[in-house]
Every structure is written in structure tokens, then in C-alpha cells.
Amino acid sequence: MSLADYLAKNYLTADTKPEKKSKKRKRKDGAQSGLIIADDDASGWGTRAADGDDDDGPLHVGFTSTEFRKTKKNKWQTIGAPAPSSADQAAADAIIASAAAESSARNAADKDDTPVVDDTARTMESGAHAGLQSADQVTAQLKRKQAEERKNFLAQGAESSGKGKDTIYRDASGRIINVAMKRAEARKKVEEEAAALAAQQEGQKGDVQRAERERRKAELKEAKFITVARYADDVDMNDELKEKERWNDPAAQFLTKKKGGKSVSGKPLYGGNFMPNRYGIRPGHRWDGVDRGIGFEKKWFGVRNKQRDLKQLQHDWQMDE
Q: Is the dihedral of CA 104, 105, 107, 112 positive or negative?
């Protein structure tokens, strides 16, 4: 080995050919190439680290838009079975129609075939038989029980059902309450209360009021036979006016016929002098002549006489002027 070869092998390094710079920007080795679809509302200021379990990250398509435009092969894929032809469609419709017809015929046959009820089996209170059986058999047994109960109910009539009968009422102890008797007792009680109230109101009236009421009834009965007009020469009217006693009658002392000393009720009256009262009631025959009142009647007559005198004086003064 020559000296030049030795130096070249151990101490000299061959220059590498410089790479030609590309005008286009080269992608980094770790970056993914292709179309990136990212959400507009992605949060965060920077790009998050790639995570295989992160479903919210951007979706990377394995080819770029340039490659998608340059490709000549159709990338669309058909999903599902191809569209059937008219013959296949007609055959499928015929199969569906035949299946529907068979199903309807089967349902009609099931309705016509009533399940057989075994009368020898043990029957429960609901009408169904004990033991293992199908739902149709149980339904048929229940319907049969209901039909028998309704038939027996209609056969019994309205008497056993209680239709049209009166309601029976009972008290707290269970005894039957006679509604008609209770109503009669309530009606009788109301009548008794009304009669008691009328008797109380009647008891509050005096003998004079009762006699006056009877006199008014008699006058109404006699009014059917008297004339409508009554003149000054009417005998009944004049007798009625003469029988009235007035305490201030100046001609009372000239009357020869004195009224009997009995009241309207038939009790004797006091025959002496007495203080007049506003009702015109005379004292009884047992009065001893002593006025035990508070003097109200005297004041009442004095005030009325004073008012009448003042009224007469005013009239006289006006006439003098």
C-alpha cells in the first residue's frame, strides 16, 4: 500500500454531493399528509398532542386534495344490495302477498276453532279449570262462566235483583228505619211547633184585641148585605158613634143612658173617677183609687195640650194682624 493510499484511507474524507434545494416547502418526516377536518369550536390555543383514544381530535384523510383530483379511479363505494330489477320486484311482491293471505287465513281458522272445555276437570271459583292449560282455554272458560251468571241473573227477574223497590235505611245499631213513619213524625213536630208559636203570639194579645178582632170579622160578614154609601142618617153608624166614650166630651153628663159597668170581656169596671190614659182603658172594679204610676200619662196629656194651645194662639195672632 502506497503512502497516498494510506493517507487517503485513514485521514482524508470524501466530499458528499450537495443536495439540490427544492422551491417547494418540504414536509417534516413526522407530519401526516392528507386532508384535515377540524371542528370550528375546538377549544385550546395550541394543537393538542396526538392521542389514539381522543375522539374529539381532527379527522385525517389518508390522501391529499391534489391526489384526490389527480386520481383516475372512482373512489365511490356502493352500500347495500343493488337495486332490484322489475322482474325481481314483482316476484318479491307476489311472495309477500301470498304470505299475508296465508296469515289471514290462519287467523280466521283460529277464530273459528273454539277451544274445547272439559267439564270433567275441577273448576275454580273464577270459572277456570285447575291444571296446565293454554291461554285460549282459560279465556273460553271465563267467558262461559260470565255467560252463565248473566243468564241466571236475567232469569231471576226484577224481584230478586231489587229493581223498583224502596231503599232500606238503617241506624247505627243496624235496626231498620221506617222512612214513612219518620217523615210523619217530622211533619207532626213541625205542625206542633207552628201551633205553639201561634198560641204564644195569641197569648201576648189582650182580651180587648181578641174581642176587636171578632167584631171586625162580624162586620166583614155583615158588609155583604149593606149598601156601599153611608149617609148621616145611618142608624147603625150613629149608634156606634154614640156608644164611644170620650174623656173630654162636654155633653157626656147630659146622657140619660149610661153604659153598663162591664168591660168587653164581661168583667166589672170601676165606677168612680180616674186619671185618663191614652188607651182609654178603665180600671177594674177592685181598684182602690190610688195612682201608682210614674206620672207619664199626665205629662203626655200636658205636652199635647200645650202644643194644641200654642197652635191655637199662633192662629189667633195671625188673624188679629
A: positive
Q: Where are the alpha helices (DSSP H) in the chain?
A: 3-10, 65-70, 86-112, 135-156, 158-161, 179-203, 207-222, 235-243, 296-320
- Residue 250 corresponds to which cell in the numbers above? 162636654
- Based on the number of CB atoms within 10 Å of its own CB, is 115 exposed (0-12), middle (13-18) or buried (19 or more)? middle
HSE-CB at 259 with a 13 A cutoff on CA atoms is: 18
| H or E element in which residue 169 lies | strand 169-170
Q: Consecutive 10-residue runs of the chain (321 residues): their mean pLDDT? A: 78 66 54 52 50 52 54 63 66 84 77 56 80 86 89 78 78 88 93 94 83 88 84 86 81 68 79 84 87 91 94 91 70
Taking Cα atoms as reference points, which of 244, 247, 305, 306 lies closest to residue 275?
247
| Contact status, residue 194 vs residue 202, Cβ threshold 8 Å | no
Reduced to 3 states (helix: H, G, I; strand: E, B; else coil), residue 208 is: helix
- Contact residues for 298 (Cβ-Cβ < 8 A; gap 6+): 275
- What's the gap between Cα 282 and its chain centre? 67
Of 293, 298, 274, 296, nearest in space to 285 by CA: 274
**Helix%, strand%, coil% for the chain, nearest 5:** 45, 5, 50
**Cβ 264 vs Cβ 210: under 8 Å:** no
Q: Name the residue among 142, 150, 146, 148 with its Cα closest to residue 124.
A: 142
Task: Indicate whether this model's pTM tops 0.70.
Answer: no
